[in-house]
Amino acid sequence: MTSDELGFDTAHRPGALTRYFAERWLKEPSAKGEQIIAWLLEAALGRNALYFIEKTKEYVDEWGGSGEIVPVDACDGFVISRDPVEDTIIPHAILVWTCMNDQPWREDDYHRWLDELLADGSAEAAYLAASLWPARNLMEKVTYRPARWLVYRGQLDAEAERLILTEMLKGDYGPRTSLYGSFEYDDVPHPEQLSKQYIERHGFTHPICGLVEPIELQWDSDLKKRIQAVLAAPSWSEGVKGAAMLLYLSLNAFNELSAPLQELLNTLEQNLFKLDERHTNIINFHMDKIEKIDYNSIKDYINYLIILYNKIINESDLSMKIFSKYMSIGLKTKDILYIGKELRDMIFNLMLKKEKVESWLEKQADDSRIKDILLATYMTKRIDYTDLRSITIDEELKTGQVEKKIEDIYGKIKYVDKIRLFINQARIYFEPGRDSYKICDFVEDILKRETRVNFSYNFREDYAKIIHSWHPSRNYFLIANMFLSSGHIGLYLYYEILKKWVWIIVDFIDHIMEEKELKAYSDTRKKIIENLYRYAMNDIEIKLNLYLNKIESNNLPYEEMKNELIIELINMIENNYDKISEYFKNESKLIMARKVILSNIGLLGGKLRNPRLTGLLHIDNKSQNMIIY
């Protein structure tokens, strides 16, 4: 029976990882069973992730121990989907394969792959490719920038605002859709810090600033003073009005405030007359001073307000009350940038309180995400303890009951699409562990019925771990979820990508048996750590080499970053004279350093008047006004 006859498509033939799980899951191993497992792995990890994992193992197995491991045409096997979850694994996979080989491929190859990402609209992946790959002038082709770089730049347009708010709605525990690059600001590990970072760089000038966490203001007196100075101005810009409104609602929600926060609240109250009617009405609506407000007047702030009450204030009864008020004035879910577990919990709790949620949800039929929420709430139950309530999956549900509900919500769909729905539910709306085990029970029941394949007791727990091994969950990916006994170098390197190469407590070397695999793994890992900007900071020679390569390649997110790197580079050379002298005994490295520094001479001010520095670089400084080289 082929994969098509089974009702699904697998992009790649079963490999070593598929065979490993076939031994663990199938009571009676078979070619048919392997096809099913290959599809299950692809559905959980993603097509490109599984391709990288399996092909890496395949190429290392075929390698003779020296020379190229991965051929250049291997990179043509990735499929660009426009889904950042699928596509942002591609730049990392190509970086790993580059570092596996003795030397990079031709620069034209990297430019070709970048052009394909851009042509297919995969902006996030294209940015990471420009950040990570060893070819010059990639970044000049890419306009997309991640959220933290947008905060760094300021002057937010509508798209920048959307990206930042989406990250804040996800919060610390939400899925990180895009992977990280080689610069610190390429990733957003703590979205709640974005407001503080914006204030520190640009002042209290944008509504984003009003979402700063009160605890930050309590302990950072300089931050508080910067805000107070803006509030004391004779008039407020539109951005300051939005920020002040949100900060006022934030501080007002707490029954007790520390002295610094109370002082800031007093300053706000004394200056509220600078708000216009619209912002004043929004405050009064949230403080129950007026019962209704035109939804259109609040629409532009709806994501800010959901972040404020769900993330910053984070008091469940107040959050539900406010959300209920939004429903009463015509809230449209299409206006909410991200819907995850917290909103599911909110809607579920409102249903328990007999609020008119169902009729409101029916009006949101044009938002496909609402179907997922309806399924999630159906599978949910609440357990009330003495001093705590827990929202979890309903253990009493039977597979047939859930399938009937799926048909009620989505209509008749293929069984493989039901399994994809369950995978998505486990990732977005439910917790790892018991919730995911129950969802994997549903998956197993459907597979047994549709494919007549029987699974062993390992399947449920293993597959739950794999579902949560997709890279958006990398911040909370545990060693307990790793399959160390697999002996699979491709899987180990995938885990390294998830854990950013330096945060692995377990040593995969202990699980690699073949000498050539050990060499490939160790050499690759060393090269990648030396080429990731944020980690190669201790060894001066590695750091210097990295800075020179970054500046020379011209793949920097903003020109300002180049200025900073040049100054840091010069300071590094000046402060580590003996080590750098040893480094420059390699003439090629000296020539590269001199070329980089002299080609950016306009950024150095009077730095090259230091005779010790010019002597180290072998620059003939004939006068204070002319440098000859």
Mean pLDDT: 91
Strand arrangement, largest sheet? 1-2
Class derived from helix and strand content: mainly alpha
**Range of strand content:** under 5%
Number of helices: 33
List segments where confidence is low: pLDDT < 50 over at least 5 consecutive residues: 623-629
The coarse silhouette is flat
Q: What is the terminal separation in angstroms?
A: 72 Å
| Share of helix, binned | 55-70%
**Subunit arrangement of the protein:** single chain
Describe this structure as you would to a colleague.
The protein is mainly alpha-helical and 629 residues long. It has 33 helices and 2 strands. β1 and β2 form a beta hairpin. The chain is flat.
Question: Briefly, what is this?
Answer:
It contains 33 helices and two strands. The protein is mostly helical and 629 residues long. The C terminus is likely disordered.
What labels would you give this structure?
33 helices, 2% strand, 629 residues, 2 strands, mainly alpha, flat
SSE layout:
Layout: H1 3-6, H2 16-25, H3 31-45, H4 47-62, H5 84-87, H6 89-100, H7 107-119, H8 123-132, H9 147-153, H10 158-170, H11 194-202, H12 214-219, H13 221-231, H14 238-252, H15 259-271, H16 277-286, H17 295-298, H18 302-313, H19 316-328, H20 341-352, H21 357-362, H22 369-378, E1 380-384, E2 389-393, H23 399-410, H24 415-428, H25 434-451, H26 458-467, H27 489-498, H28 515-531, H29 540-553, H30 559-575, H31 577-583, H32 587-599, H33 611-616
Antiparallel strand pairs: 1-2
Helix pairs in contact: 2-3, 3-4, 4-6, 4-27, 6-8, 6-28, 7-8, 9-10, 9-11, 10-18, 13-15, 14-15, 14-16, 18-19, 19-20, 20-22, 22-23, 24-25, 25-26, 29-30, 29-32
